[in-house]
Structure formats: structure tokens, C-alpha cells
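Narrative progress, year one. The postdoctoral researcher (J.K.) led the effort to move from monomer predictions toward full complexes, under supervision of the PI. The following entry was the first complex the group processed end to end, covering 760 residues in total.
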Amino acid sequence: MPVLSGLETPLLLLDEARMQRNIARMQSRMDALGVRFRPHVKTSKCPEVVRRQMAAGARGITVSTLKEAERFLAEGVTEALYAVAIVPAKFDHALCLSRQGLRLTLLVESVAAAEALSRHGIEHGHCHAALIEIDTDGHRSGVRPDDPLLLAVAAALTTDRGSGARLEGVMTHAGGSYALHAPEALVAMAEQERSRCVAAAMRLRAAGHLCPTVSVGSTPTALSARSLEGVTEVRAGVYVFFDLVMAGIGVCAREEIALSVLCTVIGHRPDAGWVITDAGWMAMSRDRGTRTQERDFGYGAVCDVGGNDIPQLAFRDANQEHGVLHWTGDIAVDLAQRFPVGSQLRIVPNHACATGAQFDGYAVLSAVGPLAQWPRFSGW
Amino acid sequence: MPVLSGLETPLLLLDEARMQRNIARMQSRMDALGVRFRPHVKTSKCPEVVRRQMAAGARGITVSTLKEAERFLAEGVTEALYAVAIVPAKFDHALCLSRQGLRLTLLVESVAAAEALSRHGIEHGHCHAALIEIDTDGHRSGVRPDDPLLLAVAAALTTDRGSGARLEGVMTHAGGSYALHAPEALVAMAEQERSRCVAAAMRLRAAGHLCPTVSVGSTPTALSARSLEGVTEVRAGVYVFFDLVMAGIGVCAREEIALSVLCTVIGHRPDAGWVITDAGWMAMSRDRGTRTQERDFGYGAVCDVGGNDIPQLAFRDANQEHGVLHWTGDIAVDLAQRFPVGSQLRIVPNHACATGAQFDGYAVLSAVGPLAQWPRFSGW
């Protein structure tokens, strides 16, 4: 491991070997299940990471913002699914990206959006590709497979002499899987996600639509599915790094989490049993995703600089640039001696997407060589 | 107001007139109380905002990261207090900034840090200026005014032929004020912050130290203090924008909050009573600061595009790029008609520092002229 002492903190560390194993694990699973894999780049927003996902066999990317599509197009990624329902104020941006050579697929879930998108395409002599978002678990947006609305949205995607909006298929995201932890419940949720999305596609095909694409996914369901019959592609994002929430769900081991925040002890409150660091909520994010899980890690799991758990230090409070770790072990311990001012700790995050977004880049830990810097972007 | 329709969202809106009034209100209060005012720029991280604070009479800035000190030095701000206890890995960076012309004041709260800082100054032929952090409310870090440690830390700040570390004074931040809301409790907390910090200074002076600076502050106490006798400067940050937490504490009116997030309705779940927007937790941050206040606003207060409250829409859930607003009003309302796909809403944030940090800049609403863009920075 490269030397970390002396580095200014907080610093976002990425364990490259763990990430590579996570990438290989997901890709080989998708290959075995016979589907194409389209990673969600909202987790990393980092060209170096996405290049490795593509090299492992990923085809195209999923984006949560048009900025991601734009930045990755500049990096040579020519196929993207924008997985948030499109609205008219974003049509011109989407068109502009298409004209720059991006094979961009958009998402609709209402007749209003489908009609507006079709009109926009016709007006501009372009054919937008669109998926209909399907609600397979009631957790957020989308059209239920049995809702009459499904056929109405499909019918509202229209073309005129090759311009307009073309129905490419259906997509769903079983975000409800994040609330589970029993393996059998995850397998059942994956099957529900698959079967309901395939049912929506079959209904559209029965109504005369081609519907070539059936896109499903979330990290928990992608890692739990036993069959993906009828599915053409899977999307997942956080698997690339994993985090405490994923470990709590049970789809990764703690040793597979590739991301951590390096911080420095800046002070103590011996009477209160506190160790204070320079990683507050600005570094960790305010994400408290493990709060509702069996084990609540506060703002993250505290480890030594080598990555070994220090379970007696609970990361209970955070200010903007202060992390407050509560010592829950032997009260006779001299905290200032055990964790001196200037010594370093590593914090494993609750949620990799949220913590990553607080930083401008990753400090990459490799087995050999010095710490590399991989930039990432943020914003819209 | 400039036209907002057609803009890509989420977008961080800043009401310039409200901000100017907030700046004037704080500065005139500090002028009346006879202290210098040193705004905390961690809230805005924006040169355009800080320029206006300085123009109103602020002297020097407070920073939460050395990056802030560096960026604002490049903008011509030559005096900064780094208000997080310094650690050895940051000494060289601090020295480098000093050598570039910044009058930088550092913070220590331990003998270990004071000794190391003194050694570093002596080794490099530089005299670091340092304040001792005082704990006046037990909420985070610092040395209690009556703790023997206070004199020990002061004694550990040493110089040799003009190099080393020089005790400039004491500072405190009554962050405990954030948990209050009764005016009399705020007045009492402001007085506690003042009196305990002044007591620490007097103890140091009695021991033979000069201790010229007595620096206190938080937005709630700065706006509640009746006397600042013995205090030489006040620091506050979030007052420049205010937010729902500050309104809940009672130190601003809702109409004084200058920040909001413009978002667009992207869909509905009529059966669940949900309106879904493109401002999720990535835009709002995960800050749920009003959770423990009398009124919990979820991820923010929902307003129409003109800024008028829509109290029936509760921002209860958020995914990365999806906000889920729950309709709590008349169940007969057709949500898709009342809040059509493509229509805009504005969300007032719980915590301006946290929400602001999610964006690359501010879209500035002025009484006259088009929407201006003010960049901001983030990271370390």
C-alpha cells in the first residue's frame, strides 16, 4: 500500500484491486445470465472507473444527468440511457448530444411527456429513442405493467417520416430492494422486477409494438437474480465500489467495499469520550443509510489506516468539517494516546454515491506504485 | 424576476436582494455592538458573495478548509482564520499560503498541536499565528476556560528569535445554539459564549499572555447577543443566505431565506398522492436539519416558482435524482393537472451550507436584468 501519512485530509481513497474484483464479479454474473450489462455511472462519475467497466465487457452506460452523458461522450462512450424521466426543458440538450454522435435513450412515464417528446423530434427532424419506465415495486415512479396507461404512453410515442419519438422498450429499477436483507427476499424481488418488466414488454408486443429492449436493475437485484429470461440488459451502479448499505443488505462483504475516507484526528474530548477528526458531513455526506438497517453505523464505519475495523469508535455526530467519534470501549483508555492528534483513520461510507459526490476525485490505492489521482465531476 | 421557465433543472437560485439585506442586517448589528465581523465563507464558497460581505464592512474571512483560504487569497482576501484545529499534515500548506501574502490565523486546542506548530515555525523561519479553541457549550471541541489545559496549550505556543507559533488569542463557536429556539435561551447562549470566551482570555492575560483576539460566533448567537463586551470579533456563516433550520431557531423569517432549488415535475403517482421532481438528495443534500425542530420539512419546503409556499406538498422522500413530494391536501385534486409534467417548483433548503455544496454555482435572481451565474467551488 502507498504511504498515506503526511497527506492532507479528508481524502477519498479508492482501493483499485477491490473495485476490479467488483467489476469482474458483476460482469461475469451478467455474462453467465446472458444479458448485456449497462453500468450506472452516477456512482463514480469518473472516466477512469468507467473505462474499466467497459473494458470488462459493459456495453453502453446509464446516466442520472445529461451532464454525465455529455462528459462520457467526450471520453468516447457513445451509448447512454438517461434513466430519469425526461422533461421538455431537457429536450434540446438531449438533441444536441444525439447530434454530437451519442446514441441516447430517454425515459418517459406519462402521455404528456411522450407527446411532447414526439412533437420535439418531429419539429427538429430527429427521432428520439425512448423507454417507458415501469413500476415493478411501488417504490418511486413508473407505470404499472397492468395499467391502461402503459398502452396510452406507448401510443403517444409517435413518428412522422422517421422523426419524432420511437418506443425502444421498457425499463424498471427495483429500488425497493434497498430495504431488504434476507437472501430469499432479494431473490424474490429480483424475480418480481424481471417478471413484471417482461410482462409490460409482452403487453406492448401484444399491442403491436416491437419493444426490443427490456432493461432492469439495481445492485441488490442484479446480484440476486436467478433467471433473467426475457430481459435484454441489466443496470447497476453502486456495485462498483459497494458500501455499508450494500453490506447491510447482504450483497457484499465488508472486505469488498472499495471506498473509504482518509481523515486525521484533530482533537479529543476525554471527558465525553470523543475523538474528533477532520472528516465531517461535508466529507461523508449527510447520508445515514444504515440508520434503518440492523446495524446503524452513524456517519460511517471507523477503521485504522490499514482498513481494520475499530468497532469501539462510533461515528455518531458530524459538523461540516468535524467528525465526532464516540469511544464505546474500555473507559480506562487514554484516547489522546491511542489516537494521537495527527494520526489517521479511515471511514467506510454508508453510501458510496453520496460520499463520492463530495469529492473532486479519488486517491487510488494500488498494490504497486504511488497513489494515483482520478478526477471525478459533479453537478448538472 | 427573470424568466425561469425553460431552464434545465435542478438549479440553485440565489435571491440577491434578500442576501444583500441579510448582509446589511448582520453588519449593522456588529457595527452597533462595536466588534469587527469576520464572515464564515464555508456557506457560500463564492467570490461574488464574499465580495459583497467585504464591501458591507466585513474584515477578513473565516474558512473551514485551507482550499477556501487559497481560493479567496487569489481573489484578494488577505486575512483568514482557519477555524478547524490544525494538524501537522496541513502545516506546510498553511506556511505556503502565509508566504503568498495571506495573514493566516490557525487554531489549536491541544499541547501536542501547539508544540508541533511551534516546532514547524521554528524549523521554517516563520511565525504562525494561533488562537486557542475554547469550549463554551460542550457541543464539540475546544478547551474549557477553567481547564488547566488552557495555560498548558498557551505555554506550548513558543517562538525562538521570532519564529515558531504566537498566541493571538481565543476563539469559540457556540454550535449548541442550533438546538435552541426560544429567544431568551438564545440570548442566554450568546451571553454564555461571550462570557466564557472572555473568561478564557482574561485567564491567559492574567498568566502573562497578550491574547489580543477574542473571537466568538454562530449565526444564532451573533443575532441574539445583547452585549459583546470583551469580544473583538464575531464570526457567522449561514446568515448570508439563511435556511429553514435558522427559521426554525427563530433568527430569520421564511421571507429572508435567499436560497432555493428550482426543480421540474417529472411524473406523478396519483394512487400514492406523489408528485415526482428532478431535485433528489443530490440537489438538496441529505441534510434533514429540521427533523428535530418543531416543524420537520423533510428535504425542504415546497414552493411554487414565484416562491409562495405550497404547504400541502411534503418533501418526504428523495433518491439521487428524484424528489418525492407527498400531497397532503384534498384527495380530489388531480395532481397531474395541478402540477403538470414540465412545470417548475422551488424548494427551500433545510441547510444552506449543505445544499449549496451540491452545486457548481448560483443562478442569481435580481430585480432587474437576466439571471446571472456566480460560480462556487467545493472540495479540499
